[in-house]
């Protein structure tokens, strides 16, 4: 039998080969090796799934996310079906119902765990709650997925003390976030700044308080002039020394009247590291027949 040799003819137009070579240089895959787009699966990560906030100490921004921006399935979401078996091994199916989210606004569903949580208790409840510090469980630190008893459990949870407290905390959190000026911390800071601005010192504030019930003294204290009021720092120190002398003389008189006494000395360093010596006396007050321990002086 004769052998036939078939020779491959060269293309008339060399531009075809050049274009194919250029195509390979660019690593462009031919249709036979391309992966169809339908083979790729999109991964939808629920960043705000409630499970990522459970059993954690949350920041203010995270609490805000749990309350207002937690992931919530829409009405078209297909919830997984659970199959339960009774004593007779008869199967019953159940699943999370979307209308539960409308009935209980505090309810949140975790797609990752296929379970339900109370987002308010997740945000504000601690490790214990209820009467006698009951340990928190389902809907707070653990998922709830017994859909057969869901309505009963959700209704009961609605009346728990720690849930009611979480509802109040949520309301307060929302109010202070929308209007920071009403927060306790800001009110204390405002009051402290006001006091620091208007306070002229303990001595002058005591005089101003005393002037409320004495019209003549109030007229003198709030009237014109500064030098004749004896409220300068020098005058204040002189008045303090006079008070010290009067009180000390009274204590010494009682000690001398008691005939016998004990001197108590204690030495300690203040915040600046300087040693301070306190001198006290222990004696019997013969007028009241009681043992007294009075402070006398301090030196340092």
Automatic annotation (TrEMBL):
Position of the signal peptide: none
Pfam families for the chain: DUF4371 (PF14291)
Top-rank lineage group of the source organism: Eukaryota
Ranges where the TTF-type domain occurs: 92-178
The name this protein goes by in its record: Zinc finger MYM-type protein 1-like
InterPro entries recorded: DUF4371, Znf_TTF
């Amino acid at each position: 039998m004769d052998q036939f040799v078939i020779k491959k003819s060269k293309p008339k137009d060399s531009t075809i080969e050049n274009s194919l070579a250029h195509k390979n240089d660019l690593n462009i895959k031919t249709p036979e090796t391309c992966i169809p787009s339908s083979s790729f699966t999109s991964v939808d990560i629920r960043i705000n799934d409630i499970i990522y906030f459970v059993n954690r100490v949350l920041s203010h921004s995270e609490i805000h996310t749990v309350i207002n921006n937690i992931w919530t399935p829409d009405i078209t979401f297909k919830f997984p079906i659970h199959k339960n078996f009774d004593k007779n091994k008869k199967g019953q199916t159940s699943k999370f119902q979307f209308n539960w989210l409308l009935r209980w606004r505090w309810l949140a569903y975790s797609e990752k765990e296929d379970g339900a949580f109370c987002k308010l208790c997740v945000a504000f409840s601690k490790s214990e709650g209820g009467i006698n510090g009951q340990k928190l469980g389902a809907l707070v630190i653990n998922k709830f997925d017994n859909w057969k008893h869901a309505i009963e459990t959700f209704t009961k949870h609605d009346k728990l003390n720690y849930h009611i407290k979480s509802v109040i905390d949520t309301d307060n959190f929302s109010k202070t976030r929308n209007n920071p000026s009403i927060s306790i911390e800001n009110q204390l800071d405002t009051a402290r700044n006001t006091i620091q601005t208007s306070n002229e010192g303990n001595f002058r504030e005591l005089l101003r308080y005393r002037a409320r019930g004495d019209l003549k003294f109030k007229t003198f204290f709030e009237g014109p002039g500064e030098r004749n009021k004896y409220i300068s720092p020098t005058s204040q120190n002189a008045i303090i020394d006079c008070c010290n002398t009067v009180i000390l003389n009274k204590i010494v008189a009682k000690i001398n009247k008691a005939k016998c006494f004990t001197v108590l000395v204690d030495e300690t360093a203040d915040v600046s590291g300087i040693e301070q010596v306190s001198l006290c006396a222990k004696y019997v007050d013969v007028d009241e027949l009681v043992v007294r321990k009075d402070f006398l002086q301090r030196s340092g």
